[in-house]
Amino acid sequence: MRPSQRQVNDSMALDSDSIMRKGHAYARSSTFRHLTERYDRGPSRNTIQENERLAVLGHILKNQRSFLANGLQEDFRTYNTGSFARNVFPLITSVYASLISTELFSVQPMEGPYGLIFFMELRASRTKGSTTAGQTVQSAITGHAPATGYTSELIDREVVGTGNATLDDFTATLGWKPIRPFTVQVTAGAVVGTDDGAGSIAGTGVTGTIDYDTGAIVLAYTVPPAADVAVEVKYRYVMEGNVLRPSYNLHFSKTQVEALPHSLETAWSVESEQDLSAVHGMDAQPIIYGKIGEQLRFEIDRENINAIYEVAQSTDLGVFDYTPPVGVDFYRHQLTFVNMLTNVSNEVFFETNGQIHPNWLVCGVDIASTIESLPNFDNAGAGTTDKGVVFSGKIGRWSVYKDPWLPRDRAILGYKGESWLEAGFAFCPYIPLWRSPQVTLTDLNRRVGMMSRFGRKLINRHHYRQLQVTNFGVVS
């Protein structure tokens, strides 16, 4: 969701520390969901994402203030920055509060030119059944591991031996005990035996005993298990009051990112500055900074989206032919576009082991036109002042954004989680905005250089898919 105009104005009037205090208090406020019911341009969004936006904005402003206070000599600050120092905080607030990137990607501000971004992994700390100690069971990279009943009393598969075509007796001690009677199942290839609740194991081709208290198990096979065939035991143990407990460790994995510069030079004539002041009573510099800030926002969003577009996989499921098949009504055919979105989303869900359901779509204009004409599209009513990549509305669970620079017939299906720790891509701002001393040469043109430094990092390309619409506008 987007901040209301009043919230943005309030933010622009505050320094960075006040922004951070306001952000934390605001995130805890019981009135939060009412005050942020709608963005200027779209329906309500997840409150966790809005809390994150405020915290990130406060961090960015703090970086900027620290740089102005500590990174510049006093004479430079007082003589050269002038209106820049007065306007930089509201300018950054305006730029970074309206970035589409904060709605699509993880935003992790950097404290220096090199930093570490983090993503979360959950690892088993004890071997239990088929889950081994140190195994990643949930990750931003690999998704969820297959369910094995790790947190339950079930031990789904404990190997007690391996066949070699000659060995027919096996002795071992099971690791999780005491064992619940009537739950033991022994498997060696096609040979299966079960316990009788009294400590005996029997099956076609196998007999044995099990001590429920100590876990000692003895097996005898009529025909020795073949070479490399695992002898496995599936059972349940008594968890109540037991010191043996399955355990997870939480790991914050990290990767390095570098903040790269994005800079430009701008110039304007002394005469135009004089005329603007005389005729309209306006200072040229805030106008120039505003336009540069607008362009900076465009380029940040565009470069981040393009980085994802280049790595997003294409899929045969993600191609929609705009022309309906023979005998099918065009409007009924249009509705099958949502079927395509569902199919590709489920493909991502499968390939990430249940980690994510894609929840956003960035579209070129042809695909945007296809979606916006669907009867179940919830139009956000984007205003005429919205520029660049804009939020268009929602179709089902997918938030839709229009990108005028994406190929017209293409779209990116992607995901952002409720936490910055669930990320496929990270945007990492360092220096929001820097300006060189203003220089006026004998040609009577004023010149300044401006720069922003930020990094970006792809974490998991499997969060994203390319979509395509073919034969747009062709209706048979």
Sheet of most strands: 8 strands, antiparallel
Uncertain spans, ≥5 residues at pLDDT below 50? 1-48, 70-91
Overall geometry comes to elongated
CATH architecture of the largest domain: Alpha-Beta Complex
Percentage of residues in strands? 25-35%
The chain-level structural class is alpha+beta
The first-to-last residue Cα distance is: 40 Å
* Count of distinct strands: 24
Q: Which oligomerization state do the chains in this entry correspond to?
A: single chain
What gyration radius follows from the Cα positions, in whole Å? 31 Å
Helix content: 25-40%
Number of domains: 2
CATH class of the largest domain: Alpha Beta
The number of helical segments is 12
Residue-averaged pLDDT: 79
List keywords for this structure.
alpha+beta, phage-related protein like fold, eight-stranded antiparallel beta sheet, 12 helices, 30% helix
